[in-house]
Specification:
By secondary structure, the chain is α/β, with parallel strands linked by helices. The chain is 31% helix and 16% strand. Strands 5-6-4-1-7-8 form a 6-stranded parallel sheet. A 5-stranded parallel sheet has the order 10-9-14-15-16, with helices on both faces. α5 crosses α11 and α8 packs parallel to α9.
Length: 386
């Protein structure tokens, strides 16, 4: 049964919400609360409608599906309690093949399960685990867009065994914003794609090359393109995928490649930067940022955009000497009058560093799902919920 969350009758019903609370934590301190804050509207809506909630999420990638105190959701549970001002019962060790805890006897309004990736078979869509999750609830709400490209028990498998399913507010917002870019973008549309590997983003680049007026590439992806005709020293690139870069370059004339770059002699925050023409890079140098001519070229293109999709920084922005390219491109993005959708962990980090969060039209919580939806225009979860 497929419903809109705003129309759901949830009074006194048990609602299992799969959230994405995969946030950076160090020494039990949450470093970024963006994903936690994004989950609040769905939780509050259901609380106000009288539901009994079971919250579930993953955190990181535990080894061997076993408990790791560094990847516990307990700090996130405490943060949610502070935000919601409601007690949350935290449940550990609730599932194994021989002893699955019956949560029906717990009377708290909100229960939070420990990291789902501690459970045997979570990432392999284990049937018994999927059935267990479904047995806990009357209704399943999928609001973890960032994990929706994976067929895991708590994001996909549970759907097969639940009678009432729907997307949360965040998930619907993600799909609406991305669909706006994919199907009817205002022109000109500029896509900006950074990252280290062209191999993992080739299909996305192929799609974006087709629907964009300009496709700007950065990072290791750009280096692979540059290496077609130039020596790039010890720069990060993928020599085995130069032929793919050549294929894209021949197919699309709307990929403005860099004119120059900033190089350093070591991958270090202390490394000095030098602007070099592409045909003048030494064997002991590596490309780590855009050069000034390239920045000016991209800046002018972006200012004219009416739609912008941004995924990935354009250089090693973590190092101050190699930050200029990403910083200037971000300035052009917010100066444009475009509808801007940004996504990916490094992109969000750059947005936070340059303090431009409030000037981006929509910031996606997804990385892999963000790219997969652009590439395929669908996600596995759509088999059950549309």
């Amino acid at each position: 049964m497929l419903l809109n969350i705003k129309n759901l009758d949830v009074l006194n019903k048990k609602v299992f919400i799969r959230l994405d609370l995969n946030v950076p934590i160090k020494n039990n301190v949450i470093l970024s609360k963006a994903r936690i804050i994004s989950s609040i509207p769905t939780i509050k809506l259901l609380i106000n409608k009288g539901a009994k909630l079971i919250l579930a999420s993953h955190l990181g990638r535990p080894k061997k599906e076993s408990y790791d105190s560094n990847l516990s959701l307990l700090p996130i549970c405490k943060e949610l309690q502070n935000i919601l001002k409601i007690p949350i019962k935290f449940i550990k060790n609730y599932f194994n093949d021989n002893n699955c805890i019956n949560l029906n006897n717990i009377n708290e309004k909100i229960i939070m399960l420990e990291n789902v990736r501690f459970n045997k078979g979570e990432c392999k869509n284990y049937k018994l685990l999927s059935k267990y999750y479904a047995s806990l609830c009357d209704i399943f709400i999928m609001d973890a867009f960032a994990t929706s490209h994976r067929k895991h028990s708590s994001t996909y498998g549970i759907c097969k065994y639940c009678k009432v399913l729907c997307f949360g507010l965040l998930f619907n917002k993600e799909i609406k914003s991305l669909s706006k870019i994919i199907h009817k973008p205002k022109r000109p549309m500029v896509s900006i794609v950074g990252g280290s590997k062209i191999s993992t983003k080739f299909n996305v680049l192929n799609v974006l090359g087709n629907i964009s007026d300009y496709l700007i590439v950065g990072g290791g992806i750009a280096n692979t393109f540059i290496s077609i005709n130039n020596n790039i020293g010890k720069s990060l690139y993928e020599p085995k995928f130069i032929d793919l870069a050549k294929k894209l370059k021949r197919k699309y004339s709307n990929i403005p490649l860099p004119l120059d770059c900033r190089v350093g002699k070591e991958f270090s925050e202390l490394s000095k930067s030098y602007v070099k023409k592409l045909n003048n890079i030494s064997d002991n140098e590596e490309i780590m940022d855009l050069g000034d001519l390239t920045i000016n070229l991209y800046y002018k293109i972006i200012l004219k955009a009416k739609t912008i999709l941004w995924n990935g920084p354009l250089g090693v922005f973590e190092f101050p000497n190699f930050r200029k390219g990403t910083k200037k491109i971000s300035e052009a993005i917010i100066k444009s009058k475009a509808f801007v959708v940004a996504g990916g962990g490094d992109t969000i980090s750059a947005i936070e560093l340059f303090n431009i969060k409030n000037k981006i039209s929509y910031i996606s919580t997804g990385g892999g799902a963000f790219l997969k939806f652009i590439e395929k225009k669908t996600l596995p979860i759509f088999k059950y919920i549309k």
